[in-house]
Write a structure and sequence with these properties.
The complex is a heterotrimer of chains A (85), B (196) and C (370). Helices cover 52% and strands 0% of the residues of chain A. With 85 residues, chain A is mostly helical. In chain C, helix 8 links the parallel strand 10 and strand 11. Classes of the chains: A mainly alpha (85), B alpha+beta (196), C alpha/beta (370).
């Protein structure tokens, strides 16, 4: 799980172009949206693409994203349970 | 009578202000060059890193041009010859094959050239008239006419006219500010002269 | 300053190849939207696509001798009848509005052919326009903005007349992008409805001839404005800043007040945010009592064509004294009680507004006056 969390942090920084942020800056339970990393609506959509591209997970309803992307912790749990890649 | 009060040019790894060299990049890689210039501005604007190349260049050029500007009534007239083809190519690549079909919203949003205007208007909070025109070369005649229209009819206090070109390895930005005071008269001849 | 009027118009769409045919179909409640098959993995989506064979038959009948890409054929089909009627002079302006133009060429990696200016030049040379074309590519407000720019150039004495054409082609390039934005509905779109869940896409070409000459049936472009939200590059301002300012400025130029407006043709894409934003803008500009609709339920969102297509339809409504329903709408689902037209009815429309909003925070509004 730790490795997956590290991987997610790395992928998020890369895919969302978070240039000024390092892996160590992202805590597992920090909110990704709102005040946390300050991600916005396009970032949320991009994370849905990330789930599909890297882990083979297609969300049935994009609104599920809100819960899944709350933090690295929630994301990792979801990916671990649902990945097909 | 209106005047060109200042102008910025980005070409061949350099930024020129009013014809004088202001900055020269230490790298020839476009992406690194834009990041280098962004960092030299000492801004905290993380959205910059999400922009496509065309918008990054528009951002840097307008940052230099509008430095010290307090007016919020600045219209934005941007133009180029390729619209958003530089990013369009990337989007097309992301959907080209059925088994590697991953269209990205972060790329797709930049497949419209007027996003350059959007980014600049957000950065400088300009709720103003704007338009993006596409032309084989800088449309001096049309830009001059339209700028004069906006100023004469008081639809703007000042106008940023821009040529913002980026397609693969070729890039060139030319931005100038037109208002009711400045050193150079706003005429087609002068525009032709300073835009090499 | 000279007044500028809209004269002849034309529409090329899944509902027909003339303004009259399109308007008749709308009066009969027809829609172009239906399940349409695209290459995998897009599959079947609700869309308004022009039937290839039916269009080719029509295009052949024009005897144009024009050879070009599909989108160029749409442009020629839209413009030809107008130019045959009104002709052109050395000074006549040609303005093209499109978001992606011949982007289909990228499927074959033909970057040169995908340049918007190439397309504009083919058309310019075919018809024999003397002046350099003006190409407006400003997201989904392009169609209205192009008309605004044409009017302004005429008012600067740059020309006495202009042909404005707006077009976009429905392709995987565009569909895939909207899908990645989760912005599309898998059923017929429902602008302003409480169960609306996204756009349907469509394609069309619309063309107008405008000039300073006033004729009996001409409609004046009395005011216009194109103001940016300065808020977000893909979502509209939650308070409708740019749209409010555009409506106010356009009305100010046209010397009209809210109480004088008889009809507003809104953008109404049927996304949660766009429609909500428009209701806020109408409340802020005192237009809550005015009958409004979206034409997107008839054609889908035709992108760079939409602003001009819907302006042409608004002009027809004005000429025929009729308000057309906003099909797809049943129960209001926006914060403010805007008057969405539910049934076709007769009404004198002397003053109408056409609004458009688009990516990049753009907004364009024109005031049309009889």
């Amino acid at each position: 799980m730790e490795a997956l969390k590290q991987e997610l942090k790395e992928r998020i920084i890369d895919v969302l172009n978070l240039e000024d942020i390092e892996i160590i800056d992202i805590q597992d339970n920090d909110p990704l949206f709102g005040d946390g990393l300050g991600l916005d609506s396009i970032d949320a959509l991009e994370l849905i693409v990330l789930l599909d591209k890297e882990y083979g997970i297609k969300l049935a309803d994009p609104k599920q994203g809100k819960e899944i992307f709350q933090s690295i912790e929630t994301m990792a749990t979801f990916v671990a349970e649902n990945r097909t890649k | 009578m209106y005047y060109i009060s200042k102008y910025i040019e980005i070409k061949e790894g350099c930024i020129y202000k009013n014809g004088e060299l202001e900055m020269q990049s230490s790298t020839s890689d476009f992406s690194d060059m834009m990041k280098e210039w962004y960092k030299s501005l000492h801004l905290s604007y993380p959205k910059f890193y999400k922009m496509d190349d065309l918008c990054k260049m528009a951002f840097i050029a307008s940052e230099r041009l509008l430095e010290g500007e307090t007016s919020k009534e600045i219209a934005l007239l941007f133009s180029n010859s390729e619209a958003s083809l530089d990013t369009d190519i990337k989007h097309q690549q992301s959907i080209q094959t059925t088994d590697a079909y991953f269209p990205s919203p972060a790329i797709f949003v930049y497949t419209l050239p007027n996003i350059t205007i959007g980014e600049v208007s957000i950065r400088h909070q300009l709720k103003t008239e704007s338009a993006f025109l596409v032309s084989d070369e800088y449309p001096i005649e049309e830009m001059h006419t339209y700028t004069e229209y906006l100023l004469q009819h008081k639809k703007a206090e000042k106008v940023v006219c821009a040529w913002i070109h980026k397609l693969e390895n070729s890039y060139h930005a030319f931005f100038y500010l037109v208002e009711n005071q400045g050193d150079l008269p706003h005429t087609k001849q002068i525009i032709n002269k300073i835009f090499i | 300053m000279q007044n500028v009027y809209i004269h002849q118009t034309n529409i090329i769409s899944p509902l027909g190849f003339s303004t009259a045919k399109n308007f008749m179909e709308l009066c009969n409640g027809k829609t172009a939207l239906q399940p349409t098959q695209f290459t995998e993995p897009i599959g079947s989506i609700f869309a308004g696509k022009i039937d290839k064979d039916i269009f080719q038959e029509h295009f052949s009948s024009l005897n144009s001798a024009f050879v070009g890409s599909t989108i160029e054929q749409y442009i020629v089909a839209a413009l030809l009848p107008l130019i045959q009627q009104k002709g052109l002079s050395e000074n006549t302006l040609f303005i093209l509005s499109t978001t992606k133009g011949n982007i289909k060429a990228l499927e074959q990696n033909n970057i040169q052919a995908a340049h918007l200016f190439e397309t504009a030049n083919h058309i310019k040379n075919y018809f024999g326009f003397s002046r350099k074309p003006i190409v407006v590519s400003n997201a989904c407000v392009s169609g209205v903005m192009a008309l605004s720019i044409a009017k302004r150039f005429i008012q600067m004495n740059q020309a006495k007349d202009a042909y404005v054409v707006a077009v976009d082609e429905l392709l995987p390039f565009i569909i895939s992008g909207f899908q990645s934005f989760q912005a599309m509905s898998n059923q017929r779109c429902k602008p302003y409805d409480e169960t609306r869940n996204g756009v349907n896409l469509g394609e069309a070409a619309a063309a107008v001839y405008i000039s300073t000459a006033k004729e009996d049936n001409s409609i004046e472009i009395a005011g216009d404005a194109n103001i940016n939200d300065a808020n977000h590059i893909s979502g509209p301002s939650r308070t409708g800043e740019g749209l409010v300012l555009s409506i106010e400025k356009a009305m100010q130029e046209a010397k009209i007040t809210a109480s004088m407006v008889d009809f507003v043709s809104l953008h109404g894409t049927a996304t949660v945010y766009n429609d909500e934003m428009e209701s806020i803008a109408l409340q802020r500009t005192n237009l809550l009592d005015v009958p409004v609709n979206s034409f997107k339920g008839y054609y889908g969102h035709t992108l760079g064509a939409s602003g001009l297509l819907e302006t042409v339809l608004t002009v027809e409504c004005m000429k025929h004294h009729v308000l057309l329903p906003s099909i797809g709408f049943e129960k209001i689902g926006v914060s403010h009680p805007i008057q969405v037209i539910k049934e076709k009815k007769s009404k004198t429309i002397d003053v109408a507004l056409k609004t458009a909003s688009g990516f990049g925070g753009s907004n364009s509004v024109i005031v049309l006056k009889k």
